[in-house]
Write a structure and sequence with these properties.
Number of helices: 18
Distance between the termini: 54 Å
Number of strands: 4
Strand order of the largest sheet: 1-4
Largest sheet: 2 strands, antiparallel
Order of helices and strands: HHHHHHHHHHHHHEHEEHHEHH
Radius of gyration: 23 Å
């Protein structure tokens, strides 16, 4: 167990109330901003929506990508706004256009073979909305509103995980919860499979941590396996999670073996591995049968014209220069915090907020790693393992994006491109949210303790939270998001 300051009387007294309040604020925030943004945004929202509709109708992957569903094309033509991709404002809604509907009817949906879990869940949610009698734009927004229960469940599991890992460190769990509740990543206001990555990853991490902590309930084992498989089957960019969870399972087996209980727990371990492997094997089998491709990514790669570079050319990538690595990491950090949405062809961002996100990530991230290393001698072995695991989570996900960046020639693709050949989309590593913020909060604690014992780290967290909330709201108001005649409030 670590030594040092871990709580304040006021946080001890009002912790439960604070957690409930910020959780409610987070859910309300997602509702308001999801409703404020019209359809369809620049992060492939049309393609995600069409895939949701296909799954709602019992879609099964076929040979190659297909054109848009007629139901999707009609809704896109009727409710899509020009405001994301045109500089002009839209004082009134434009009328339905059969020409736009026909255009989408003949468009290829390259997301059709993406990892299926999000689309299965959203498809079921879509059918539930129809059962309630929702239609048109209300049914469309209903899909986005699924992000509210998803995020609420994520917050709850994240809180339980942080409490389990360091029960005496109240600053950690409250700080992480505060930052999560106000985290300004705008992909959570969208129809997008990335929104489920944090939930499945933290569920897998939480369940394995419970098992590692000697919880002997056999039910946790297969459930953990399902969550691990689900992490990859939500988004292919979560492949690094398999490495992280494999390390955890290996450490778990080693620990059980050292206690002499491996024979007793062996059926549980087998059940977990089966629950992990079966969904992945089935999905790989479907992809091989329909596309001849294990991951199902070939259709998207072909659509955008990416080609695999010869291995000997991988080392020539600009990411291996100081300037290139800075471009990659700085854009990754900024987009990790605030997302990638544009409005009137301009990024929904400000130089000041981007600068704060980048600067605090560098300072508190570095300090957090230093704190983990410095306190290793005063921590329990379990605490040390999970603290280093957080660092490994961040390193593995970032390394995976580096690998993708150097592997492909991007041809005429607008992003990534040969001019900016980096997978620097923070939403692709959203599964790391709890790990990142754990390191971040530890960094705040570490620096506050070094400067003065009178500085309450929670005050620093509150300042960061208030700034990010104020900045996000200011940007949306300044750009006129809430005034859009295409959003939920103007249906």
């Amino acid at each position: 167990m670590d030594t040092g300051r871990y709580s304040h009387p006021i946080w001890k007294r009002y912790e439960n109330v604070l957690i409930v309040v910020v959780g409610i604020i987070a859910i309300v925030r997602i509702f308001v901003f999801s409703a404020a943004f019209p359809f369809f945004n620049n992060v492939d929202e049309q393609f995600h929506f069409d895939t949701v509709v296909n799954y709602a109708h019992g879609y099964l992957p076929g040979n190659g990508a297909s054109t848009f569903n007629p139901e999707s094309a009609k809704i896109i033509a009727g409710y899509g706004t020009p405001e994301y991709f045109h500089r002009e404002s839209a004082p009134v809604r434009r009328p339905f256009s059969a020409a736009r509907e026909n255009e989408w009817l003949h468009s290829i949906n390259y997301e059709e073979h993406s990892s299926p879990v999000y689309y299965m869940c959203a498809g079921a949610w879509y059918n539930l909305g129809r059962l309630f009698g929702l239609q048109g734009g209300y049914l469309l927004y209903w899909i986005r509103f699924m992000n509210m229960p998803v995020y609420a469940l994520f917050l709850w599991v994240a809180y339980l995980f942080c409490r389990d890992m360091e029960p005496d460190n109240q600053y950690l769990r409250i700080g992480v919860m505060l930052l999560l509740s106000f985290f300004p990543q705008n992909v959570f206001y969208s129809i997008n499979s990335d929104v489920m990555s944090p939930l499945f990853f933290i569920c897998g991490l939480f369940l394995l941590a419970r098992i590692y902590g000697d919880n002997r309930s056999w039910r946790l084992y297969p459930l953990a396996g399902i969550m691990i498989a689900g992490t990859v089957l939500v988004k292919l960019s979560n492949l690094p999670a398999l490495l992280i969870f494999s390390i955890m399972i290996g450490m778990l087996v080693k620990k059980i073996h050292s206690t002499g209980h491996l024979a007793v727990r062996a059926p549980n371990i087998v059940a977990m591995l089966a629950a992990l492997a079966v969904p992945l094997v089935v999905w790989i089998g479907v992809n091989l049968y329909t596309l001849g491709d294990m991951t199902g990514a070939s259709e998207k790669i072909n659509y955008w014209g990416w080609t695999v570079k010869p291995f000997r050319e991988w080392g020539n990538h600009p990411i291996f220069t100081i300037q290139g690595m800075y471009l990659f990491l700085s854009e990754l950090a900024r987009s990790f915090w605030r997302g990638e949405l544009i409005w009137h062809l301009e990024r929904l961002a400000s130089k000041s907020s981007d600068g704060i996100y980048l600067l605090t990530t560098l300072i508190f991230g570095t300090a957090g790693i230093a704190a983990i290393i410095a306190k290793r001698a005063h921590s329990s072995s379990g605490s040390n393992f999970f603290n280093y695991l957080h660092i490994g989570v961040m390193a593995s996900y970032i390394s995976f994006l580096v690998l993708l960046s150097i592997r492909y020639d991007f041809g005429d693709c607008p992003y990534p491109s040969n001019e900016f050949p980096y997978f620097a989309s923070g939403r692709l590593i959203l599964a790391t949210l709890v790990s990142f913020l754990t390191i971040y909060v530890k960094g705040v604690e570490f620096i506050a303790a070094k400067i003065s014992r009178r500085i309450d780290p929670m005050v620093v967290i509150f300042v960061i939270v208030l700034y990010s909330a104020f900045s996000e709201i200011s940007i949306f108001l300044e750009r006129g998001i809430f005034a859009s005649p295409y959003n939920f409030f103007h249906l």
